[in-house]
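The data are set out underneath:

___
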Amino acid sequence: DIMHEYRIAEQVSVMLNLSSNDERDLTILGCTFSRIPEDSTWHYTSWVNNLSDERILLERFREVTVIQPTWFLTRKRFEILGGYIEAPHPNNV
């Protein structure tokens, strides 16, 4: 996937503009993304990149709506959640 060159700066700005540390620690940010190759999972990419805030909340129990490579959260929230635990590769299960 391709990361926009200003993505992290923009996510830092959004996070710093939240009203309190408590609000920051309860927030996970995400963003749209581009695929390589461009036509891989085009339907899913189009769907998730066009979700409104309301649809993200409604769809969260049905499908992943904040795409993993775009996650942005505080270190405190990351540690509370137990860090990043990568699932084993299917060939190793």
